[in-house]
Amino acid sequence: MIQSNLFSKELLDKLSDAGSVAVLTGAGISAESGVPTFRGEEGLWKKFRPQELATVEAFMRNPELVWAWYRHRRELLSTARPNPGHRALAELEGRCRDLTLITQNIDGLHRQAGSRTILELHGNIRRNRCMECGQRYEDIALPQEPSIPLCRCGGKIRPDVVWFGESLPGETLEQAFVASTRCRVFLCVGTSAVVYPAASLPIVALQGGAYVVEINIEPTALSPQVHQFIQGPSGEVLPLMLKALDRYENQAGQADPRNVQIHDRQESPGGRYS
Ligand code: BJW
Ligand code: ZN
User: Fold this and answer.
1) What pLDDT, on the 0 to 100 scale, is given for residue 46?
2) Is residue 43 a contact partner of residue 120, using CB atoms and an 8 Å limit?
3) pLDDT of 52
4) Measured in angstroms, how far is the CA atom of residue 195 from the centroid of ligand 1?
5) Does the N-terminal or the C-terminal CB of the chain have fewer CB atoms within 10 Å?
6) Got the DSSP string for 204-255?
């Protein structure tokens, strides 16, 4: 059972100040929607080898296999719905002056949940593009046959996602770095934080002076460096964070400032685990 008082006063204070917030999400936030993660016991990379499915070389070698894998995952995603974690982040965006949601996920669930400012670092599984001329195609426009869809120019069409060794979309990545450098609060949610350049964003946020909070069901290599690590499923922790924020703001609204003394415990990053 997660305690609702586990959110530090510093976090609630900075969030209620409606300052700028950046959030980085990974596969873990969609786990409670039934979307498999990549790493860990139940992860996709336990059953499939990334080198055979998530590189350009793999696609050139065996495009049928890569297409079969993506069609299978699209089918899984067709019934997936946003969970309370996605919805809490959409609600938080409505409450903040400036919130940038940076996601490594390609599942589109943040948009379905109502988030608006979304930077998709690794593309989107519902889009496709031609390897040769770059022409974009929506998923629904693609025929199932032949098994490798071809562009009007004759080039092979591929899912519009970012594979290992490929560059991330330049402008999107640039915006993600700017938001992470400038934010006052950075939330790192449901990512193993091992894939670069996304994994540098929380570090950049720390260097820029942001208060960095990590939410994950288990500690990661990042955990010792953050201001607060909150262990638990994001679909439970994030809605609780909003409730705690409500309570905090109500109390602040009722309090007579002359009677309030704030004792802010200065904590060094990494010192605090729930
Ligand atoms: C919960 C939860 C719940 C569970 N609640 N939490 C050596 C050193 C450094 C870098 C490199 C290197 N060799 C190569 C590189 C570069 C490489 C890289 O970083 N590799 C590392 C693995 C070492 N990066 C790249 O190649 C990137 N491009 C690039 O760098 O270009 C420049 C360059 C070019 C050429 C050479 C070198 C540099 C591109 C990376 C593209 C990643 N693509 C994928 C596939 C996308 C398409 C698809 O889905 O099919 O993106 S891989 C996969 O990993 C996917 C994810 O977005 C990404 C990150 O994974 P994520 O989201 O963190 O998921 P998991 O499963 O790892 O973690 C889930 C977490 O959730 C866990 O912690 C759980 O505990 C937690 N969790 N349930 C909260 N309910
Ligand atoms: Zn083409």
Assistant:
1) 82
2) no
3) 84
4) 3
5) N
6) HHHHTT-EEEEEESS--TTGGGSSEEEES-HHHHHHHHHHHHHHHHHHHHHS
Extract the tokens encoding 102. Answer: 């940076």
Give residue 140's pLDDT: 67
- The reported pLDDT for the residue numbered 18 is 64
The whole-number pLDDT of residue 129 equals 95
Pocket of ligand 1 contains residue 39 by CB under 6 Å = yes
Q: Which of 38, 44, 161, 230 to mutate to test the pocket of ligand 1 (most atoms within 8 A of CB)?
A: 38
The CA distance from 233 to 85, in Å, is 9
Q: Both tokens of residue 98?
A: 């400036």
- The CA radius of gyration of the chain, in Å to the nearest whole number, is 20
Nearest CA owner, ligand 1 atom 16: 196
